[in-house]
Amino acid sequence: MRCGFCHGHWLCGSCDMIAELPDHNAKWEERMLYRVQKGDIVQASKVLADAFQHDPLWNKIYEGDPNIEKRFHAFFEGGVRYCLKYGEVYAPSKDLEGVMGLVPGKYADMNWWRAIRSGTMGIGMRMGLSAAMKMNTIFKPVTGDRRGNMAGCIFLYVLVIGVATELQGKGFGRKLIDTAIEKSEREAQHLYLETETEENVRMYEHFGFKLLKKITLPIVGLPMWEMVKEPQV
Asked: Which class does domain 3-229 fall in?
C-alpha cells in the first residue's frame, strides 16, 4: 500500500494501548499509541479515506466514479481488516487522528485465502469490480519489485499510513512512523514501504529510508517510489 500522512495519502474489546502489550521496551511504551480494535474499523477506514482524498493514484483509479467516496471507504476498510488479521493497526490515540497498518513481510501480498480469512473478500464488490480488477494490473510490478527487493530479508511492511486532512502537520504522522521505525529496529528488521507522492520521498529520506526504485505504474501512468529503511544493528 501507499503512504499518506503528509499529503493525503494507504475489535470489540477494551482499550488496548501499546504500553499494555508484552515485550516492549520503555521507549516504545512511552509513546502510548492506541491499538486499533475491530470496533474501530469503520472510523479508521473513514480517516484513511479522508487522508487519501486528494491522492493522485486513487483518484485516477476511480476517475469518473460517482460513488468514489464509498469506494475509498471500502478499499481502506479492506486494508484495515487485513492488517488486524495479519499484523497490527495503530493510531496516535483512541480519537484516531491517523492510522497505520503494519504486517510482517511474509504477509505483504494479499491472496485469495488471506482475503477470505481477514474478511476482506466481500469488500471487493463495494470497492467496485472494475477498479478491483484494474488494481491487480496496476500493482503487479509493485508486488514483483517488493519480492525482489526484499528477497532473503525479514521485514515489516507499512501497508498503509494516513492522517486526517484537518490534522495533518500536527505531528501525528511522525509519531506513527517513528513507532514503526522503533519496532523494526527493536526486532532487527528492515522497514519497507511505497509512496506515490514525491513530497513523501524526501520526508521518508529524512527518516532514514533509502530509495530503491522509481517505477511508472501501468494503466494509470503515474509514478511509484519503493523505499526501505535498514535496521541500525
From this structure: alpha beta
